[in-house]
Amino acid sequence: MNHDVLHVFDATPPDSAQRDGFLRTRHAIDELVAPAPAPDHAACTLTLTLRDSHRALGRIAATLSSIPVLALSYAVTGTDRATVRIQVPQAHAPRARAKLNRMVDALTVTEQRPALP
User: Fold this and answer.
1) Burial bucket for residue 45 (CB in 10 Å: 0-12, 13-18, 19+)
2) What is the SS3 assignment for 59?
């Protein structure tokens, strides 16, 4: 690690001539590190119908591991079919739908977008 980087996190700069540079550098680092406020995006609901098996839920979890899932419900019907409702942010819906369509057990995947105001 570089000595300058360590100095940026020091609360007291060595002299007043460096104070302005220290504050600017510290402010720039805070802007880079601080997370941006979460935007208020609407969620999209994907409905997946698939053949029920003891591995189906694990396959869904593995398939969607790189996508933020807001909610998931898994219901088994009496015909060895399962219905899964998955809520994802709208920006991730096309990718999630494409991944779910490639699953071996998937029969249908539908997408329900929120109504526009």
Assistant:
1) middle
2) helix
- The C-alpha atoms of residue 112 and residue 114 are separated, in whole angstroms, by 7
pTM of the predicted model, to two decimals?
0.62
Two tokens, residue 83: 């219905």
Residue spans in the chain of domains classed CATH 3.30.70.260: 43-112
**Burial per residue of 50-75, b for 16 or more beta-carbon CB atoms within 10 angstroms, e otherwise:** bebeeebeebbeebbeeeebeebeee
Quick: pLDDT tens for 67-108: 999 999 999 987 889 999 999 999 999 999 999 999 999 999
CATH number of 43-112: 3.30.70.260
